[in-house]
Amino acid sequence: MEENKTPEQVRGDKKTARRRQFRKIRNITIIVVVVGFAAFFAIRFYYPFGKGVKTGELRDMVYKGVIFKTNEGRLIQSGFHTTPEKGVESNEFVFSVVDKVVADTLMRMGGYVVELRYKEYFGALPWRGFSKYIVYEVLSATPSRVSPGSTPPMFEQPQPGVE
Description:
Layout: H1 7-46, E1 50-64, E2 70-83, E3 87-97, H2 100-107, E4 112-120, E5 133-143
Parallel strand pairs: 3-5
Antiparallel strand pairs: 1-2, 1-4, 2-3, 4-5
């Protein structure tokens, strides 16, 4: 039957074959790009590349946000570091909390020395919090030497009759 085809029909078959090949390559390229983007997104935002424990005095814990309400906290760690803009400042660990129970527990521990277990991600998601550090467990909590509402030891009045 191919012997009876006109030159226009033969050219049309070649064009159709090229179109099919182009569509196949285009579809494979689209699938590879979509799968690559999905893998990048999953690794960047859902794969924890680090886990650890931080200890320090809980400075504050807040529930904030306009569209996505998240729990955010700051922990003051021992030691200092310098920055050109601000000079000497204390080490601060900024974190987010996803678990409501852990967030409520930390809300009541302002000024306590806490030991927190966290996961570190490559990036932050708006519904998970502003930080790439996500605290998921409170290991221990002890009142700091100077807790809010107490008198620091250097300002305590001596008790009469006690030496």
